[in-house]
Design a protein that fits this description.
This protein is mainly beta. The chain has 1 helix and 15 strands.
Length: 207
């Protein structure tokens, strides 16, 4: 993904509560890696959400709500030379981060996830010029209307069921190491090759 080709998700049928993605952020990316999926457009026109990777490879939630702007940066550094599965669930004001199907952190953000369904994009957001495009690789993104359980997150790592009632969006993008173009899509229900799964020992955790 780059500044010119963020992928439009369109309007979701319900507000999201779980975001999942297979991504790769290189060790060399010390500064902000950008937006995985989000609908922030900088206009302050209504509730907005960004799921992104901030400085030092740390996942971050960014909310624009009626209560103001809120963000929470997790302490786990997900930079790696292999793809990493990231899942963030939000129940009430508690955000939970899973890395490769294993619980990494659960934190209170102090603010509930805003109800918003429009304008989501993968690989960037709605700001002019897409300055915070994702500076790594995005292999897949899935969005759910429910709070996925630990077992469901682990199962989602290898296969997303298109029959899941809570599934709002799921797309797998070819990357250069798997195909010629990231603009083609794999079908729903694609089973991932376990060889791309990164061992947790290769993920840096900030003390």
């Amino acid at each position: 993904f780059n500044a010119d080709n963020a992928v439009s998700v369109g309007t979701l049928s319900a507000p999201p509560k779980t975001f999942e993605a297979w991504i790769k952020v290189p060790y060399s990316q010390t500064e902000r890696a950008g937006v995985i999926v989000g609908n922030y457009d900088g206009t302050w026109s209504g509730p907005q959400i960004n799921v992104e990777v901030y400085n030092g490879g740390k996942p971050r939630l960014y909310y624009l709500t009626d209560e103001g702007t809120v963000w929470w940066t997790f302490s786990t550094d997900i930079r790696s030379d292999k793809p990493v599965h990231l899942a963030i669930t939000v129940r009430g004001d508690v955000a939970t981060l899973y890395i490769n199907g294993i619980l990494a952190e659960a934190v209170s953000t102090g603010v509930r996830l805003p109800d918003t369904t429009e304008g989501f994009k993968v690989g960037g957001d709605g700001r002019y010029g897409n300055a915070q495009y994702f500076k790594g690789e995005i292999y897949s993104v899935s969005i759910f209307s429910d709070v996925r359980s630990a077992d469901e997150v682990k199962s989602d790592m290898t296969k997303i069921s298109d029959r899941a009632d809570s599934l709002l969006y799921s797309e797998t993008f070819y990357d250069a190491e798997y195909s010629e173009s990231i603009n083609e899509y794999r079908p729903m229900g694609q089973t991932f090759d376990s060889s791309i799964v990164n061992d947790l020992v290769d993920v840096n955790r900030t003390p």
